[in-house]
Every structure is written in C-alpha cells, then in structure tokens.
Write a structure and sequence with these properties.
RidA, EC 3.5.-.-, hydrolase activity, RutC-like_sf, alpha+beta
C-alpha cells in the first residue's frame, strides 16, 4: 500500500510540474511556522510553482503537543484547523485546496469524519480516503493536501 501511495504522489507531482508553463520551476522547502517543529525531518509545505504540497496533519493541539480528546470528530476538526494554519502562513485558505488525501485509523469512522470535513470544504476538492493500521502518535486521522495559489 505504501508503494501505491508514493506512486500516486509522484504522478501528481509530475503532472503539476509538466503543466507549469515556466521552463525552470523552482522547488522551495518552506520552514515550519511552529517553533517546536523546527527540527522535524520534513517540511510543512513544499512549493513547486504555484502548487503547495502540505505534509500530513493530525489532530494535535500545537500548543500542548498532544492529541485532542473527544473522538474522530474532534480530531478531524483539529486536523483541519492545523491545515488552515499552514495555509494561512502561506497567504492561502481552505478555498485554495484542490486535493486531500485522508488516512483513517478505522474506516468505520468515515461517516463521522466526512460530516466535519464537508463543513471545511464546501468547494469539494478531489479526495482520496483510506484506512491504515496505525497512524503517528496514535491519531485517528491524518490529512495531507495540495493547494494551488493564484499568481
């Protein structure tokens, strides 16, 4: 499954780069907006032309660095608020999101997660959702996004 997931990301990345009219598209690995994540082994966002590839977010309260309590709905809300914070750092909002990949720890949480998700994305970006056996820090959900910024 991991190989399939990486393959999808590479295809998406390649298409984005191929469709860019600039001949020399630069890649920018943006520093995090959270001081506590400054030494993390990944970027919160990587920019290629006008596309921003956001790293996965979980339902972690970034002030306490702990998962929020209250189940899948609360974790989904926090996850989406964390995505909003990354987008805001790059002068974007949820309307800029064109694709989401959602990983649930339990596919039975699909309906409850989707109920919250649709409140944040009325524009209905493309979405892939699947379940995995375990997520980082024991999270119930992780969401990564691709956003497009108008020039």
């Amino acid at each position: 499954m991991k190989k399939s997931y990486l393959y999808i990301i590479l295809i998406t990345f390649s298409i984005g780069c191929a469709n860019n009219s600039e001949s020399n598209t630069s890649i920018t690995f943006h520093k995090t907006h959270e001081a506590k994540k400054a030494n993390a082994p990944f970027s919160d966002a990587v920019q290629v032309g006008n596309l921003y590839f956001l790293s996965g977010q979980v339902g972690m309260d970034h002030t306490s660095r702990t998962l929020v309590t209250g189940g899948i709905k609360k974790e989904t809300e926090q996850t989406l608020e964390n995505i909003k914070a990354v987008l805001k750092h790059h002068d974007m909002d949820m309307d800029n999101v064109v694709k989401c990949t959602v990983i649930l720890s339990d596919i039975n949480d699909f309906a409850a997660f989707s109920e919250v998700y649709k409140e944040y994305f009325p524009q209905k970006p493309a979405r892939t959702t699947f379940a995995a056996k375990g997520l980082a820090v024991g999270a119930k959900i992780e969401i990564e996004c691709i956003a497009a910024k108008s020039k």
